[in-house]
Amino acid sequence: MRERTWWKEAVVYQIYPKSFSDSDGDGFGDLPGVIERLDHLERLGVDCVWLNPVYESPQRDNGYDVSDYRAVHPAFGTMDDWDRLLEELHERDIRLVMDMVPNHTSSDHEWFQRSRSEPDGEYGDYYIWREGSTDANGDPVPPNNWESFFGGSAWEYDEEREAWYLHLYDVSQPDLNWRNPAVREAMTDTMNWWLDRGIDGFRLDVVNLLSKAEGLPDGDPSNDWVGSEHFVDGPRIHEYLGEIRENVFAGTDAVAIGEMPNLDLDHARQYTGPDGPLDLVFHFEHVGLDFGERGRWDVGEWDLRDLKQTLHRWQDGLDWNSLFFENHDQPRSVSRFGDDERYRYESATALATILLTLRGTPFVYQGQEIGMTNGTFESLEDVSDVDTVRNVRELIAEGVVRDYESIRHVVDHRTRDNARTPMQWDDTAHAGFTDGEPWIPVNENYPEINVARERERTPSVLSYYESLIDLRDRTEALVYGDYELHRPDDEQLFVYTRTLGDERIVVVINFSERDATADLDVLEPDASLRLGNYDETAADPPATLALRPYETRLYEQS
Ligand code: TEU
């Protein structure tokens, strides 16, 4: 796995199109809106775009509920707009990775409509249908105790077919039956249809959940996600992913990125090893560090050593990582891991440094490059995210929390809406995202935090990202170099090296709000400063480094 490929050298920029840029004033971002903003991406220096789903969809889970995989949802534009986007990206040497959702469709999809109305027809076996039973009172009981990730049972009774269907996500997202070869063929055909249009790869949504255990046995009720031991990395997953590799990716240089809830290192190695079916995988261990006793719907304590330990385990254990702190499902990293007030610039740039200088392919999420922050949500009515709404309602109904007020701090910290507030372009109305009324309110700090402002001020998060991406492009050791951690137990400092031949980059970060001093054996007197997030840093390292809050330095030595 030492070979060189484009996706190891690339910096990927993730676009959540609904919230990126609206060209027609309907308050819903669209593809022409993305095209209008491509200069921003070019200037930032990214090499690839991952576009969240833009397929036809009723949008109950913002496009992860697909009703037609071969059509563009009208609010995003037309297929011509999509063609133009691909062309404009490629003209700028920026690749395009589409998001594919193979585990489930929308309940509006024709396959599901026909599956529920014609059980013996062509689509009858496309989904996971079961009879269920009744309890002593004659009430229907679902086929097993599995839970939906969004809360409540993973089963829904369908009056029309008089059977239950499985949905690991929203009730409007029925799981496809991957045991059925026709389903597998339909999905691979769909992917090939898009690849033939010239795209550069796929991010495959929850792709380690495709195989469900034979007989659908009850799960351990004490598990965080009840049933998950029977559908995460299930018994036939390697066969299904192998087929995808063989029938879609083999013989192309398109990248296969697997998004994988509950992924552990062992499975990650199997999925991406020399004979593995995928190129890259997303795991979520580091973004679970701030979970509390009640799991995701609780906030817990973490410290720098935990973060270093988790990142280090994956750096050490997997040859090539996907690096990310944010995406459309995660809150803003500067609010979560840094300090979004006094040290917003310093901590956002420290995080940028980790993201872009560890070994792996970095993914920058829209708005991260200007240090966008979390919002605040006064009532559950102000929250759009189906995950938050369903889970919080469930916690209140079960009496786990009294009311919204008593869980609001968790929602403010955790809800996916934090990532979905519109991109902040300038200080005009709605941050320049739309001329109309945005589908989700803009973060009120937009007059202070926006692209135009970031371009004017020095230093800025944006210009630091630009310099860092440029440095990564010019420095082979930052791409292909070996990684080594120093001072693993240090509570303030994150120090590591990236070494390729005789080129060595030493990354030194004071990841804290306090000053720090560092005598670093690894730093040679002849090292020279390549980048830092504070002005006025001497080019040559003194014997003892004095580092200010979140101060970050990259030295090069040979
Ligand atoms: O998300 C799947 C998912 O469950 C994780 O990303 C989860 O957020 C992570 O394990 C951290 O806890 C994907 C999509 O990204 C999401 O937007 C969809 O709602 C979901 O699948 C269903 O398609």
From TrEMBL:
Pfam families tied to this protein: Alpha-amylase, Malt_amylase_C
Residue ranges of domain Glycosyl hydrolase family 13 catalytic in the record: 14-420
Keyword annotations: Glycoprotein, Glycosidase, Hydrolase
Entry's Gene Ontology molecular function annotations: hydrolase activity, acting on glycosyl bonds
PANTHER family the record matches: ALPHA-AMYLASE FAMILY MEMBER, NEUTRAL AND BASIC AMINO ACID TRANSPORT PROTEIN RBAT
Family label: Belongs to the glycosyl hydrolase 13 family.
Stated name of the protein: Alpha-glucosidase
Organism encoding this protein: Halobellus rarus
Lineage: Archaea, Methanobacteriati, Methanobacteriota, Stenosarchaea group, Halobacteria
